[in-house]
Every structure is written in C-alpha cells, then in structure tokens.
Amino acid sequence: MLTDPLERLGRTGGLSYLDLVRRRSIGGRTPGELAIPDAVVVPADPGQVQRVLEVCVSHDVAVVPFGGGTSVVGGVTALRGDKHAVIALDLARLDELVSVDPVSRIAVLGAGVRGPDAERLLAAHGLTLGHVPQSFERATIGGFAATRSAGQASSGYGRFEDMVSGVRVATPRGDWRLGVAPASAAGPDLRQLAVGSEGTLGVITEVALRVRPVPAVRRFEGFVLDGWERGSSAMRRLAQSGALADVTRLSDVDETEVSLALNAGWKTLLLRRYLAARGVRTPCLLVLGWEGASKREIASRRKKTVALLREFGAVGLGSSPGEAWERGRFSGPRQRDALLDAGVCVETLETAAHWSKLDRLRDEVRSALRGALGTPIVMCHISHAYETGASLYFTVLAARDDADPIGQWERAKRAACEAITGGPLGTISHHHAVGVDHARYLRAEIGDLGVDVLRAAKSAVDPTGILNPGKLLPAEDS
Amino acid sequence: MLTDPLERLGRTGGLSYLDLVRRRSIGGRTPGELAIPDAVVVPADPGQVQRVLEVCVSHDVAVVPFGGGTSVVGGVTALRGDKHAVIALDLARLDELVSVDPVSRIAVLGAGVRGPDAERLLAAHGLTLGHVPQSFERATIGGFAATRSAGQASSGYGRFEDMVSGVRVATPRGDWRLGVAPASAAGPDLRQLAVGSEGTLGVITEVALRVRPVPAVRRFEGFVLDGWERGSSAMRRLAQSGALADVTRLSDVDETEVSLALNAGWKTLLLRRYLAARGVRTPCLLVLGWEGASKREIASRRKKTVALLREFGAVGLGSSPGEAWERGRFSGPRQRDALLDAGVCVETLETAAHWSKLDRLRDEVRSALRGALGTPIVMCHISHAYETGASLYFTVLAARDDADPIGQWERAKRAACEAITGGPLGTISHHHAVGVDHARYLRAEIGDLGVDVLRAAKSAVDPTGILNPGKLLPAEDS
Fold it and tell me: Which of A214, A308, A403, B275 sits a CA distance of 20 to 30 A from A194?
C-alpha cells in the first residue's frame, strides 16, 4: 500500500482537458478538492485483488480501479461517494500473458498489461491482438474491456468487446468468470454486461481475447474526396459492401485543412495544385490501412475498395499521407500540452449514429460548439464505420477563457451532448465511455429502466456500493 | 381473449421430443398437468401488450409470451409459477414491417412476424434479413431475439443477436427502448441483456434489424473430407482464414452415412465407388452455400475456400448434394412425426466450444448418449463456425422404451448436459436457448453471481415476477 502524496496524485484523474487544466492549478487545494485517493494498493494477482475488495467491504472503503490512467471522461477520478475513504486499485502488476490457446486463437491477458506489452507478449507466439486506440501506449487490457474501447483498426479487428471471449472479474461477492464458448444461447450475454461496466460491477482481472497471426504485410494509403457528403457516402458504401480497409478514416474539410496547414511546405503546395487541377475544391482526406498475410491478399482487397472509391471521384495520393498518419497516430494527446501552454482550449469528443442521421448529427454538434465557443476550430472525422452507421470524432480548438477555463469547456461540452442526445441522434459515447462526464446523459440513452437494471445488477454484486462510486450511473435524483 | 380449450392447447409447449410424446398422451390429464394456459390473449400492437401486462400485474397473473411455438427446450410451456393463473400472450398480430431505413439498412419488424413473412415484407424493398434457422417457417422475429437464434447462413449473416440494432420491450414497469447507434461505449450493452432473456425480462414487441440487399446469386456445393478430425480441422482453417461460405455445414461420418443410406439408389452407389476410388474411407459431407451480388463475386470467394479445402484433401461433389440439402433444410422437424409413429426416440441437442475442446466434447457427448441409450444412432454436425470455436449439433435416434419414453430421454439428455457442463467443455446451448430444460445447468455456465445478476435485473423490471415463471433462471434452491 502506497500513501506517498506523489504516488496518490499519480493515480487520480485521467487525460481530459479538464483534468489537465485542474492539474495545472493544484496549488492550495486540499486532497479532497483534488479527488486524490487516500492510498494506492497494487495487488500482485487476481487473488490479491479479491482480498483487497474484501478488506474494503469490511472497512467501507471506496475502490477506484486504475489501469493506464488515460480516461478522458473522469473514469479514474478518485471519488469516495458516501464512503469515508477511497483507494486507487492499481492493476499494474497483473501484467502477464496468463495462457495461450493457439488452436482456438485465444490468449488470456492480465488486466494490467499495457497495449505495447500485450503485442510484445503475443508476438512471441506469432500472434497479435490488433487493438490500437490512440491511448495504446499507456492504456491497459482491463481498461479497454471496462470502457468498450475501439482501436484505429476496428474495421479489421473489431471493437474491443468483439475480441473479448471471456472475462474474470473480482467482485465484493467473489470471483466471477464468464465465457465458455465462441457463442451461446444460454440466456443474456453477461460478458456484455461486464464489458463497459467501468469498474462499477467489479474489477476486471483477466480477459480472454481472440487473437490472430501477426500480419506479414501492412500498407497505408491516402485518398481525397471532394466534400464531406461525398466522403461519408463513400464510407457508407465501403462499409455496406464489406470493402472497408482495416484502418479506414475520413477527415472533414476542416480537419484536412488544418492537417495541410500544419504540414505547410513545397510538398503541400504541390498537393494543393494537384487537387485544384483535378477540380477538388473541398478536400477530405481518407486514410486507408490494410494488414494481411501477403501483398497479394492485400492487393485483392484493395482492388475492390479502390474500385468503389473511384465511383465517388476519389483522388489517390499514394502512400505518404497514410504513412504520415500512421507515424503520428499516438501523438495527438502529447500535442495538447503545447497547445495548453499557448492558451488554447483543446479537447475532443465523439459519438456514433446511424448513417441516415450522421450528417445531421455532425452539423448539430458543430453548431452547438460554435454557439458555445464563438469562433472555434471544429474538426471532425469518421474512424469507425459499420453497416448501419459510423462514429464521429470531433477535435475542438478555441481561445481559452482564462477567467473561467473550466466553465467555458463545460458549457461547450454540455451543448454538444445535448445536440447528441436530443432526438436522440446518436450515442453519448462511441468509445470514450461514460465515466463522470457522461453519467447525466445515460438516462436519455438507455431509459429509466436501463438505469434501474444497471443499479440492480450492481446491488447484486456490490451490495455495499464500494466500487467506483460516481461513475457510469447517474446520480439518484438526476 | 380466447378461452376455447383448443386455442389454449395450441399455445403451450413447443416441438421438443418430450413435447411431442406428451401431446400424444394427453387423454385423461388435467389442464394443470398439461400446463395449458387459462386464456390466450392476442394484442394488436405494443401499446396493447403494455396494457395486458398492467392488467396481469394488478391481478397477479403469469404471462408466457408466445411466438411461433417452436421452442425445443420448454420455453413456451404455460407454467404459472406461484401465480394463480397464467395466460399465453400470443404476438401473432404484431406482424408488420414497422419502418425501413434503407440508408442505414435497418428495418423495424414486429415481434410476431414469421420468418417467411419477414423475407416477403423486406423483399418489397429489395432487402433481406438472411436469418434462416430450421424453425424458419413458423418461428417469429420476437422469438429469434428472445432466444439468440442462429440461422443456417450464420457464417454470412451472423447470429440473430448480431443483426439486432435495437429492441422495444414491454415490461411491467413500462415500455423500454434500446439501441440508438451502430456501436456504443455508453456502459454495458443492455440490448445483449434483452436479447436472450426468453420473456423473463419483458415481452419483445419490436426489433430493429440490420438488413442487406437481396442477393442476386446463390450457389450450393458439396465436398467430402476423409474423417471427422480432418473435417473439423478444415472448418477451423476456413473460419480462421475468413474463408467460410455463408452456409458452411460439416456432417460427421455417422450423419453422412445415414444421409447416404436414406438416399440409396444408383446415384449413391456411384458416389460410394467414386469416393472409394479416391481413397476416402470415412466420408464427412461438407455443404457450402454462397450468396452474393454476382457470380463473379461468389467465384472469387469460392476460389479462396476451395484452395484451402484442397489442402485437407477435400473431394468435390458438385452442386447436387448442396442443393439437396437446401431443398430439405426445413424438413427435419416434420420427419420426426413419422419416426415417432414407428416407435423411435428421436431428438436433437446442441452446444458450442472452443476449437481446442471441440473434438473431445463431441466424443464425450456421444459416449454419454451411448451410455444412456444402449445402441443409439448419434449423428453430429458443425453448422456454425467462428474464429475461436464452433457449434456441435447432435441428432439422436434410439429404440423407444415405451414403458417410460419420457424417463428414457430425460436420462440421456441429462448425461449429455453433464458431459457438456463438466469442465466446462462447452455451452449448454448454442442456439436452442435455456427454457425449462436447461435452466438447471445455467449456474454451471454463468456462476452463482451470474444467476444473481439476472434475478436482480428481473426484479428491477418485473417486481412481482409475472413474466414467464420457471424459464431461464434455475429454481432458487438448485
């Protein structure tokens, strides 16, 4: 058990803009105001996690499971709820590849294994998980499962919940294992209740995951489509034709413009000329990435995709834009510190909707953000596409209101969330999860009955309510 | 409300062997012994379903939702639990295509729409659901969702739960709607709690389903592999290479032999000679079916599949075995009556397991059935394959013990279920669901905590416990 203030400070809060702003102004605040845990516990295995929960039940102490600390929705803030103390339960020591079944292509990984370590451990068996979200470098297997993460190659590998074959969960009422078969009709799929439970129903200690052979070949490539509507129509066509590349990512005009502006130089100037000559006035960048066993296999898939893109007038840019994206794919979060230093309010938010509502949802979220922030830069991309719809990921930059930076963003975020849940047009989160920030919107999405069902499930496994209070579930009176 | 005895008798029990045996010996039994509902209610729309539930809550009457009546696990038996009366809630009038969103490829269908009607309604829009289980002709959309059905083309179209984009559920606490986006990280996926809930958490009234364009071309084809191990290895290779046909079904040697014996004649004799000349001593029939927009598209997929099959020494049989299977695909249940007349005990059971356990599971279930039934014919096939495992579907024929036909099958079924749940090696059901027959095995699969969570969820939406008593959940003391 660690009680050193710096250790405790390191295990609260995540990486949202508000987390960063608060962390820059901690002087003079009390641990309670800062939501710092009273202690950090670092168990070595699932059995020890179980025993920590038993101790916390008997002493009525709140438990906040802590993985990579990359939540952007307040999911790992050390709230104590109605408990007199709170610990951060750091799962870093559950860092093993527990077992591999190469015949069934299932690997069991400890909850504390980080993205790169998962790939390193699996690569020794010639296997890969293929889950590469922007948080990859720090985030953990347990966190991916607890939050329904989606990686940049989700078109090829699926969302994290699609990879989950089984879970082991430590709860105040005992160890719980789920998942004995590839598919089942033995009642509701309770794995899908554990996945996405954000530490409120138990502490995920091990996850059995579908794995695949390490691809021998990768290919990244860029295209440009003229205008958002044409771009999103092309995305839809690819998704509904089974022609998505493993990575498929479409930026809107604003995101593409910023990307070009940040890469100013001769090359970009030539690119602008090239596009203008082809009549492309409102370029939207489409990045595609394929993985496969051979160049031939990729070529065959690529042929189908490119043929469909040509119908939408896509202009090929060769490999460099795709490769540039691939090199910088994890750098977004790191750039934020520099922008914060420069007085910029910078944050992302995301949603997903059915195709028939997608363009309208994008318009309404942009309007909401503009209404709240004056003249922000609002960029948007689709990075996860499905047969029935797609995600929308917004990056917002605005001049920071230094008198009230927190209030400024809270108002903008609320306007965006209300645009999403009005109707409802989309989901309050496609892959960032609920945490504290989205809890008040959950009721609009799953109904009063949905909230009651989640509360009932929680009471069944966590009768005294020690697990991650204040997260996921809306306040009783909201 | 219908109270005529014949109407009531028509809305209880399903199509299991035990249901058929019991139905043949109803003389002299009381309605209670026969589990006949006290009345049949046939509401016209979701609002009326909601009002029926309200009336049943206020009068403490049990409600058994009734769709096509094709359950083979006792799922629609009119049990009253601790209630003084029970009604069958027949959803036949919820038979509409409620809405179509062709852009998002989502159709909302009423719970009472039967398989062929769903396809007819969708075909008017050029769309198909592609869900074709053996119960297709009678079973309903609501039943498919409530039981996690899997169709014969599940490799191409997915299991029914994979098609469910949203659900509308009538509960004693009100109307409940779920599903606003193609994917979400807004907490646990409660759609996956409603799906598979078998009428215990509510009455599914409408289902929003992912649909696809009607395929222009279909192609069925047969192959033979020499021996089960080689056959199941080939299935695994196809599943793990993304090379499954939309229908992919492998029979074991016994099932293949019975199929050949039932089609005795010159053609079969020639086939036997043909296989013997190629050194195939233990033929396992593999039926493949592709659907697609063009012959070219199918040819391209087929090429990959056949290349992999050649590595396992598969012998091509051309189109006739596949087409013969396709013609007879719904006839299995109808043949049972003739077998029953002939004094045969005939039933099916099914499970699924990870690939590394699949062959052992098949051996153990066969041994268990032989131990209980003497010298039965036990046939087995894989009809649903996944990257991590596959289903096993057994058909059992034995000389009926006319002194105790029910006890005879109950002992055999119990032995098979114990072979499945010991370990556990597999799931108690891949697509037949839980009903009454599997309820006692649910605890082995989802743990005491899983059962407690389901009970808690039920209490949240059905506090007085009127919904489908005795189904899905094991008895309190088991």
Answer: A214
Rg (CA), chain A: 22
CB contact under 8 A, A192 and B196: no
A303: Cβ contacts below 8 Å, ≥ 6 apart: none
Residues in chain B closer than 8 A to A106 (CB atoms):
354, 388
Contact between B50 and B174 (Cβ < 8 Å): yes
CATH class of B5-90: alpha beta
- The closest of B387, B227, B404, B154 to A212, measured between CA atoms, is B387
Topology (CATH level 3) of domain B217-325: Alpha-Beta Plaits (3.30.70)
Contacts of B198 in chain A (CB under 8 A): 187
Q: For the structural domain made of B97-213, what CATH number should be given?
A: 3.30.465.10
CB contact under 8 A, B180 and A427: yes
| Cis geometry, peptide bond prior to residue A424 (ω within 30 degrees of 0) | yes
Q: Write out the DSSP string of B272-332.
A: HHHHHHTT-SSEEEEEEEEEESSHHHHHHHHHHHHHHHHHTT-EEEESHHHHHHHHTTTTH
Q: Tell me which amino acid residue B285 is.
A: L
Number of C-alpha atoms within 13 angstroms, CB side, residue B437? 30
Q: What is the pLDDT of residues B382-433, one digit of tens each?
A: 999 999 999 999 999 999 999 999 999 999 999 999 999 998 999 999 999 9
CA distance B378 to A113: 45
Question: Within a 10 A sphere around the Cβ of B344, how many other Cβ atoms?
Answer: 18
Instruction: Tell if the CB–CB gap between A391 and B184 is shorter than 8 Å.
Output: no
pLDDT in tens, B312-340: 999 999 988 778 887 887 777 778 888 99
| Structural domain spans, chain B | 5-90, 97-213, 217-325, 332-421
- Contacts A236 to B, Cβ<8 Å: 103
pTM: 0.97
Tokens of A432: 């960032």
> Cα separations (Å) of A384 from A146, A155, A387, B310, B409?
19, 6, 10, 36, 49
Instruction: For residue A163, list chain B residues with Cβ-Cβ distance below 8 A.
Output: none
Fold classification of A217-327 is Alpha-Beta Plaits (3.30.70)
**Closest-CA residue of chain A to B424:** A180
> Domain A332-421, CATH 3.30.300.330 — does that match?
yes
SS3 (DSSP) at A253: helix
Between A and B, how many CB-CB pairs are < 8 A?
283
Measured in residues, chain A has a length of 478
What amino acid occupies position A103? V
Are A158 and A244 contacting, i.e. CB atoms less than 8 angstroms apart? Answer: no
Minimum CA–CA partner of B352 in chain A: A181
In Å, how far from its chain's centre is CA A159? 10
**CA dist., res. B380 & res. B352, Å (int):** 12
